[in-house]
Amino acid sequence: MKHELAYIESFFNNELNTQERLEFEQRCATDKAFAEEVALYVKTKYGFMQIHRNQRKAEFEKLRRKPKQHFLVQRKQATYWLSAVAAVFIFALSLWYFSKPDLQELADTYIRENFMILSSTMSTEKDDLQRAIGLFNEGEIEKASVIFDSLAQHNNTDALKYAGIAYLRLQNYNTAIERFTTLEQQTLQSNPGVFYHALALLQRKQGNDLNEAQKLVEKIKAEKLEGWQELEKRHL
Length: 236
Description:
The protein is an all-alpha fold. The protein has two domains: 2-99, no CATH class; 103-233, Tetratricopeptide repeat domain (Serine Threonine Protein Phosphatase 5, Tetratricopeptide repeat), CATH 1.25.40.10. 72% of the residues lie in helices and 0% in strands. It contains 13 helices and no strands. The protein is elongated.
């Protein structure tokens, strides 16, 4: 039972790969006991989001308490039952997907609100760093990224952070992720590296990026790293 619960939770936590997710969905369509456990899990955890709560509860209870059929059921009855279970599962799963807070929306909004302009007051450094910030704000982001990178080689963590932001704006997500990964390894009183790393993954959207971003988000919340308040504000 515990193993099944962990398996179900891994599906809804986006911890399964594509093949495993397909196997999970196939099992829901063919395994009565498992499908009922999944439906009960969704109902318990998400409460069906208060949508037609009483009606859906009655339908679920009716399905759960339905006497087991003799194993020699007719093909037509078996097909009808599988369709009913699949309908319950699809309904529960669709509610979960549509009600789940959208990390992609968070990334888009945060970048739009915070990475379009860099405040010159964000750093007390002068000369080259301020010049690079000015170039960034004037739309010369590629030129700014070169200066940020040069300064970052001299252990300037502000420049390293801005370099990652610049590459993110240039949609050079691989390099942005490299810079943010380096940033998160630095010992700082307040380090946005993990949060920015997650944002970059959500923008790149390749392979397993969304699952990896979700893991970083869980780490941020669990360890209260920089960005956790933003996540909490958006109920993520």
